[in-house]
Write a structure and sequence with these properties.
Number of strands: 8
Strand content: 15-25%
CATH class of the largest domain: Alpha Beta
CATH architecture of the largest domain: Roll
Helix content: 40-55%
Strand order of the largest sheet: 3-4-5-6
Distance between the termini: 25 Å
Structural class: alpha+beta
Number of helices: 9
Radius of gyration: 20 Å
CATH superfamily of the largest domain: CBS-domain
Shape: elongated
Number of domains: 2
């Protein structure tokens, strides 16, 4: 059985809906002193899992469902492998300039840095690229290894992991994309082979498909 680990904010939202529901998203945001946009990911997760229901012009309400019921009934059967995208990756020897070009050509916000055999070496984001471009260094000669985040500071997911678990990781770590990896053992050492990527866009696509069904 998969255990759902809610964030503190999500738990606060559930308690608020329990006490004041039905309650609109605007009123929830007002009570938490946040803007409505900041709550959208949390409300999306809570409604996606069935813990909250929502009615137009009425607001959010508790469904009475338990997280374990939702996981076993719906989200526990939806895996990362079913909705992940193809990874966009470069080699560690690539320059910052070439990586920026790849980022814009592929229209992605995160690029994975891999070895020749596809093993995860690092991750770079648009923010990393901007910092590198502002250093004053020649980005044509600056290797991407200077700007990338290395293990063990990289959050990853796995093909068999549940979509809800990945959504929780994206929210808790405030990132837009995670590398999907398989653990590969070689010479007694475990390495991570990149096989895909999972982003907030993948979650949005899943929500739309669930709504259509």
């Amino acid at each position: 059985m998969v255990y759902i680990e809610l964030s503190k904010r999500q738990e606060m939202i559930l308690e608020m809906v329990k006490e004041f529901g039905p309650i609109t998203g605007e009123h929830i945001a007002e009570k938490l002193h946040l803007c409505r946009a900041a709550l959208r990911p949390d409300l999306a997760v809570l409604t996606m899992t069935g813990l909250l229901g929502a009615k137009p012009r009425v607001g959010y309400y508790l469904t009475g469902k338990k997280p374990t019921d939702v996981i076993s009934g719906i989200l526990g059967n939806i895996r990362v492998a079913d909705f992940m995208s193809q990874p966009v990756a470069v080699r560690e020897s690539n320059s910052v300039y070439d990586t920026i070009v790849t980022m814009f050509v592929e229209d992605v916000g995160t690029i994975f840095v891999v070895s020749e055999d596809g093993m995860l070496e690092g991750v770079v984001s648009r923010k990393d690229m901007l910092k590198s471009a502002l250093t004053g260094e020649n980005i044509h000669n600056l290797p991407i290894s200077i700007a990338m985040t290395r293990m063990p500071n990289i959050v990853v997911t796995y093909p068999e992991e549940s979509v809800f678990r990945v959504a929780d990781k994206l929210l808790r770590h405030q990132v837009d994309s995670l590398p999907v990896v398989n653990i590969v053992s070689s010479n007694g050492k475990d390495q991570l082979k990149v096989v895909g990527r999972f982003t907030k866009t993948n979650i949005t696509r899943l929500l739309v498909q669930l709504a259509e069904k």
